[in-house]
Design goal:
The chain has 4 helices and 7 strands, in the order βααβββαβαββ. By secondary structure, the chain is α+β, with helices and mostly antiparallel strands. Helix 1 packs antiparallel against helix 2.
Length: 168
């Protein structure tokens, strides 16, 4: 296989691909309904014009020029010093290549450089591979609650990680 490249999003089609890939994959893999795709589309639309580009960034992972993953870092609603990791996705064709970890590491490095002190993210219990990536990088569950907005009941999980000083 070829080389994986992580780049900032902004090429024609990036935003549409993020919404489409999430919608297609989560329906196919988890049976989630169109409520999830609408949620992703609303998120992508809100992030398309960053309020503060120095504190918000999105990335696309490519393999041989083909989009295979995404992630976004933005300011959390929790506070100005808290980053939020959003829209992590790795296409099934690229799983097992370490792409998810590279995307999360890129997001973490940006958050530290942007001056955030903590990082927050929300995921669900069924996303075990993503949860393993987060936990390997020091994220810990800080809250959980049932969620049924995607057509299938899941447990929503809030994760956080301190960013003070380093990524080690």
């Amino acid at each position: 296989m070829g080389d994986v490249r992580i780049r900032e999003w902004g090429a024609p089609g990036d935003l549409g691909w993020v919404a489409m890939a999430h919608g297609e994959l989560y329906v196919a893999e988890y049976g989630w309904g169109d409520g999830f795709e609408r949620h992703v589309l609303q998120t992508v639309t809100a992030l398309a014009e960053p309020a503060d580009p120095a504190r918000q960034r999105g990335w696309i992972a490519e393999l041989d020029g083909r989009r295979i993953g995404s992630v976004v870092c933005t300011q959390s609603d929790i506070g100005a010093d808290v980053a939020q990791l959003r829209l992590l996705l790795v296409h099934p064709d690229a799983r097992g290549l370490g792409v998810g970890g590279q995307l999360v590491d890129t997001c973490l490095a940006f958050a530290v450089a942007a001056g955030y002190r903590r990082m927050h993210l929300w995921t669900t219990d069924v996303l075990t591979a993503a949860r393993a990536i987060y936990e390997k990088r020091g994220f810990r569950v800080v809250g959980q609650a049932p969620h049924d907005g995607f057509g299938v009941p899941v447990i929503g999980l809030d994760y956080e990680r301190d960013l003070a000083g380093s990524l080690g």
